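Students often ask why inverse folding is considered easier than folding. One informal answer: many sequences map to the same fold, so there is more than one right answer. In these notes we will look at a single instance of the problem. The structure comes first.
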């Protein structure tokens, strides 16, 4: 016959042993869990830091873009050139116009013509636009090469300058590019700044459509974008 007191004592000892064992296991697991948590990288913090870093980098890039933008000295410009440059500044990145239309992938000369109209130029038999339909405007209005030929026939409107005559270029003048040195003109922009560097050399910055830009360097265009390209300018008569 089993002795009840001894059985109860045995059960109590066994219960205490089990409790102690469970406590030990719990402590060990807790330490392991803490160690595992410490060893695992804080992905939330890393992700947040990465986002913050990306944001900072983006902000820095944006700030750089603003810092390098052509700054126009409006006070030095005539009223006509001021009107031209205000138009360019407001519309250099536009991709549509109810008045002038838009030529997909080839709107550079159309936009340069618009700027000259804002400057005070008047349409004539060879240089004119079709309202709302840039494709139907005259060749001289929308084609870089045709515009070059038009100005060669109208020296009273502008004087051609070579790239070696940069010191004569003014804000509001027209820059044209011959990317493959074929004699025609492949791209046209409007001069926004003349930058004199520390070494005395001059860089010209320009705005334009198609590859929409406000402050692109002529030097970059003919050395990096289209190595070997040639730039010429049209000094617009006052």
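Output (designed amino acids):
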């Amino acid at each position: 016959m089993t002795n009840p007191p001894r059985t109860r004592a045995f059960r109590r000892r066994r219960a205490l042993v089990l409790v102690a064992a469970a406590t030990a296991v719990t402590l060990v697991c807790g330490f392991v869990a803490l160690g595992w948590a410490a060893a695992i990288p804080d992905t939330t913090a890393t992700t947040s830091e990465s986002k913050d870093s990306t944001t900072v980098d983006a902000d820095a890039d944006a700030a750089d873009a603003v810092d390098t933008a052509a700054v126009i000295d409006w006070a030095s410009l005539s009223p006509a050139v001021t009107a031209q440059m205000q138009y360019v500044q407001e519309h250099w990145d536009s991709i549509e116009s109810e008045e002038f239309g838009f030529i997909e992938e080839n709107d550079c000369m159309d936009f340069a013509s618009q700027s000259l109209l804002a400057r005070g130029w008047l349409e004539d038999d060879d240089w004119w636009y079709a309202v709302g339909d840039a494709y139907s405007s005259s060749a001289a209005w929308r084609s870089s090469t045709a515009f070059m030929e038009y100005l060669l026939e109208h020296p009273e409107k502008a004087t051609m300058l070579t790239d070696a005559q940069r010191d004569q270029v003014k804000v509001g003048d027209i820059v044209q590019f011959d990317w493959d040195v074929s004699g025609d003109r492949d791209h046209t922009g409007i001069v926004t700044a003349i930058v004199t560097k520390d070494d005395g050399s001059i860089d010209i910055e320009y705005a334009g459509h198609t590859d929409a830009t406000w402050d692109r360097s002529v030097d970059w265009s003919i050395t990096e974008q289209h190595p070997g390209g040639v730039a010429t300018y049209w000094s617009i008569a006052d």
